[in-house]
Please model this.
Amino acid sequence: HQVAAVAEAEVETRDGGTLLRLPRLSLDASGTAALATLARSWLTEPVRFPRGGAVQVNDLLWTADGSQRSLGGFRLELVVVGTDRAVRIRREPADDDELRLRAITSTEGLRLEAELTCNRGLPAELVASVSGWLPRFGSAATIRGRLQGTATEKGVAGPLPQVQWSGRGDAVVTGVELAGLAGAVGQSARGDAVLRIERLEVEQGRITAARLLLSAENGSLGRGLLERLVTVLGCRFGPGSAPLSAGSAARSTDDAPCR
Model:
């Protein structure tokens, strides 16, 4: 399975690090996860990776559902300032869109900071892989908005650990794969959706406040998922919803308006 493809590359070594120039880079969700693992290892292993550097891609091609789309130019920067380190991903030429992950070393341990500002849209898998604190929305999902999170881990050595994040944000995610999202909690669903995150607050890995709107057409929700929406989140079905008959395993999203 090919997760990344590079036709040619140019390498330039400087005092501050290495610059890798790629005219074109083809990536899918698996390739993004692999590159994100390397970037996070660089963040937390200064002895193994003592220098900074950058990767400049003139044309990033994102592969999802058997098709490719161009995301334009991107630049990934590995920045070292004293004992602090940062991974920064931005568009090239530069604009306001940026994804940044910082590792700040102190006497209390390692403090991690993740921040996303995105108005034009980025693959949600890329954001989830690099930040490490978003769910998997699917390879075709795109995210726009603002997210900010922090986490602290004492005595960290080696790759970035599975820490508990705290943060807040608002965003819109299109192309959400309901099957994968429901499957993560052991439930079933079908179809694609749009998720509007009007407000989200997370404390130590737990959602403390949220205002979300999930809309889908031509899909279905499993009985178990519907029951959990009611019992766990307190959702109530709207007056236009069709009753779920005994023995029915799922309900069409068009027949199940709820809030």
Remarks:
- The radius of gyration is 20 Å.
